[in-house]
Write a structure and sequence with these properties.
Blueprint (H helix, E strand, L loop, with lengths): L15 H4 L6 H9 L6 H4 L14 E5 L4 H6 L6 H13 L6 E5 L6 E4 L2 E4 L4 H18 L3 E5 L1 H8 L5 H4 L3 E2 L6 E5 L2 H5 L4 H23 L4
Parallel strand pairs: 1-2, 1-5, 5-7
Antiparallel strand pairs: 3-4, 6-7
The structure holds iron/sulfur cluster.
Iron/sulfur cluster binds next to helix 3 and helix 6.
């Protein structure tokens, strides 16, 4: 029996730091994460949804957590928000197959509403409990450009004072990768109250990703 993780995260398994395999590579780490019970979210989600993409991807995109469709499929960014992300990437000429996509939290946190499972925001203890998986992904993939999608990812990786609404689209200094930026989560565009607003938000999202595309097209210095 492993010891419990820090108070607040719940969970009845060892902390992530004790689950990391001796031989660190994405295949081994993904397999270890599949059995993670370091916080209570494993009880609610169907399965761990680990990041996916090339092992040496130039760009890594980090969202908040898997959604309903991802939880069932077991793959990140395959639901409606993922499809919107695919469209935006195609628009700016970034091949999705070059991108490693992952989340700050690897299990779907949800609340029941009738027959539906509604997204619930992970708390800071759950984010902290899960964080070593993401840190390991970043350390192994070593992306040249890291993109936080939404406030949860941005605040987890860039600090709690980071405001996506004010600082989106800019590259900010960070030890995480040579170039680090943040924009909104694509699910926020889907939640826009009307078509006009959705169109405007999509345009801004595409503009943020266009900066990423320009960065990727530059030669490494
Ligand atoms: S959310 Fe993260 S820390 Fe919590 S059980 Fe899932 S993989 Fe483990």
């Amino acid at each position: 029996m492993g010891k419990r993780v820090e108070r607040g995260a719940g969970g009845d398994g060892p902390p992530v730091s004790e689950l990391l395999p001796a031989r660190l590579n994405l295949t081994n780490v993904r397999a270890a994460a599949a059995g993670c019970r370091a916080c209570d979210l494993y009880k609610r989600g169907t399965q761990t949804v680990f990041g996916e993409g090339p092992s040496k991807a130039e760009v890594m995109m980090v969202g908040e957590q898997p959604g309903d469709a991802e939880d069932i499929a077991g793959h990140p960014f395959v639901g409606p928000a993922g499809k919107l992300l695919d469209r935006a990437l195609a628009e700016v000429g970034i091949d999705r197959r070059r991108v490693y996509v992952t989340n700050v939290v690897k299990h779907f946190k949800w609340e029941p509403r009738g027959k539906r499972r509604i997204h619930a925001k992970p708390n800071s203890a759950e984010i902290a409990a899960c964080r070593p998986w993401l840190e390991t992904e970043i350390a192994l993939v070593k992306p040249r450009v890291l993109v936080c999608l939404g406030a949860t990812a941005a605040q987890a990786l860039l600090g709690r004072s980071f405001k996506v609404s004010r600082q989106r689209g800019r590259f900010v200094p960070s030890p995480l990768a040579p170039r680090v930026t943040a924009t909104v989560h694509p699910s926020s565009i889907l939640r826009a109250p009307d078509e006009e607003r959705r169109h405007a938000e999509m345009k801004q999202f595409v503009a943020d990703l266009a900066r990423v595309a320009r960065e990727l097209s530059r030669k490494e210095t």
